[in-house]
Amino acid sequence: MDLPDDHPTPDAANPSDPYNRPAQTYPHLSDSMIARAMPFGTLLAATAGTLLFARGEKYSDFFVVLSGAVEILHHDELGAAHVLTVHGPREFTGELDLLSGARNLVTARVRVDASVLRIDRTSFIGLSSAEPDIGEIVMRALILRRMGFVEHGQAGVVLVGGQQMSDMLRLRRFLIRNNYPHRVLDVDAESGALQLLHALDLSPRELPAVIAPGLPPLRNPTLAALSDALGLTENVDESEVQDVTIVGAGPAGLATAVYAASEGLRTLVIEGLAPGGQAGTSSRIENYLGFPTGISGHALASRAQVQAQKFGVNLLISRVALGLERDGQAFVIVLDDGRQVVTRSVVVATGARYRRLELADYARFEGQGIHYAATPMEAQLCCEQQVIVVGGGNSAGQAAVYLSRRARHVHMVVRGRSLAETMSDYLVQRIGRSPTITLHTRTEIAGLSGDGSLTRVTCRNRDSGETRDHDVCNLFVMIGAEPNTAWLGGRVLTDAHGFVCTGSEGTGRLRASAYETSLPGIFAVGDVRAGSVKRVGAAIGEGAAVVAQIHKYLESLAEPAQA
Ligand SMILES: Cc1cc2nc3c(=O)[nH]c(=O)nc-3n(C[C@H](O)[C@H](O)[C@H](O)COP(=O)(O)OP(=O)(O)OC[C@H]3O[C@@H](n4cnc5c(N)ncnc54)[C@H](O)[C@@H]3O)c2cc1C
Q: Does the CB atom of residue 255 touch ligand 1 within 6 A?
C-alpha cells in the first residue's frame, strides 16, 4: 500500500513561505523524466525501516521514489526524531546539502516497502546538466526545501543564550549568512531555555551555546569550530593542485568560480566568513540587471553559491587566507588553520571591509550596538526603537530606508551639506519623502556611552559645535570600506590606498590581461582592484571576464620554454 505524500504545513499568513508552494518544493517527476534518469542510477528495493541516509553524514545519494514511501526526519535539540515530510511515488529526496557536500540536516528512512532509484552525488550532478529540465525542477526544490528549513527553524541547530549577547549576534550572523537553519532559545525570556541548560549541563557562563543533534553542545564556539562541527567547510586535499584558487566569495569571487568551473577548471574558493561578501549584507539591490523588483544580497549570494556548487566548485567556508608564496610555477596559499593550498593561478577577490569611526570606546560597542549591515536580523533588534545611520553613500541610504519600516525613527548623520553628491537620486528622494527618517547634515558622531551595550550616542554639529544626545541602542556605521589586502604581504603592487593594481595601470609593465597583477598568475577582480567601480554588476562582470585570461595564462604554462 502506498501512503499519500505528506508535506509540512505552511504558514498561511506568509505568502513567501516555500511550504505554500508544494508543487515546486515537492514536485513529481514525469514518466519520461524518470525514464531519462534511470541510466544515471541503480534500482533498489528497500523494506520499511531501511535508512537511506542519516543526519550528519556527508555526500549522500539522491533517491527517486518509484513505489512505496520514504519519510524525512528531523531531530530536536534533545535528539528526538520527528517526521518532517513523506515522499511518495515520483517524488525525490534531497536538499541543498546534496550539492554543497555539507553534513546532512535530515534523515531519510523507508516508511513503506519501496522501490527507489539511487543516484550517487557525481552522477546526480551529471544528470542535472545532461537533462536540464530535470535539473531545473530538482534544483528549485532543493533551494525551496532549504528555505523552508530556514524559515521554520527546522532541521538545524538551537542557539541558547541572550538575544542581545554580542556572541549570540556573531553566531546568528554566521548561520544566517550561510543559510543554516536555526532557532534561538532566549534564556531571558523562555522558560524552556533553563530546563534545556540543566538537561545539557550548561552553565550561564558558557553561553551562547549551539545545540546540534548528535553532537555535544558547542560552548560559545569560534566560527571555524562551528563551521567544522556542522560540516560547512569542505575538505581540501592538500596534495591536489588546483587550476585556480579564488580568495573571497563575494560577487566577484562567486562569478569567477561559476565561470571557471563551468569551463572545466579545477576550482577552489576560500572564504573567511560566508558567501556574498558586502553584497550579502545589502537588504535590497535594486540596480542589478534582470531583477526589476530588486533582490536581497543574501538571496543573490545563495543562488550564486548553489550555481557554483552545481558546477563542482569546492568551497572552503570560514577559512581565512593568511599568506601567499610562489613555489616554482605554482603558488601556495597558507590558511589560518595551518593548511596549505597549492594552485596554478590565484584570483584575489577579497573586496573591502567596513571603515570604523575614530572614537574612544568604539571597539567596546562593536557587536554591542554598532552594526555594519542592515539585514532582517538587525531590523528585528531595532523594532520600534530610534536608530542612527552614519554615512552618505548608497549603502547608508539603503539601510535607512530599510530600517525605517521597522524602527520608530531613523536619524541619518552625514558630514556633508547634502546627499546629492554621494547617493543615488532614487534613494535621496525616498529619504526626503519618508516621515520616519530625519537627515542631519554637517553632523558627526562625537561620543558613545552605555553600560555594557550602547545606550546613548552624542552627535555634534560641525558648524556650530553644538552637541545633542540621542538615546539609541543601535548605531549603523556605513562610511565606506578599505581593501582586504594585508594577506598578500606586499607581493603584488597596490595603489596609494592599498587597492591591487592590475593590467598596465600601476604595474609598470604592458600586460595583455586587464586583471593580471604585477605577479603573473595572480589576478584581481571586484572591489579590491584599483580603479574598480564598486558595484555588484561590475564585480560579477570582472569575475566572468578574468576566466578567459586565466585560461591563457594556464596554456602559457603548458607551452615549452622558448629556446
Ligand atoms: C550594505 C551594502 C549595500 C550595497 N548595495 C549595493 C547595491 O545596491 N548595488 C550595487 O551595485 N552595489 C552595492 N554595494 C556594493 C557591492 O556590494 C560591492 O561592490 C560588491 O559586493 C563587491 O564584491 P567583491 O566580490 O569584489 O567583494 P566583497 O563583496 O567585499 O567580498 C569579498 C569577500 O572576501 C572575503 N575575504 C576577505 N579577505 C579574505 C581572506 N583573507 N581570506 C578569505 N576570505 C576573505 C570576505 O569575507 C568577503 O566575503 C553595497 C555594499 C554594501 C556594503
A: no
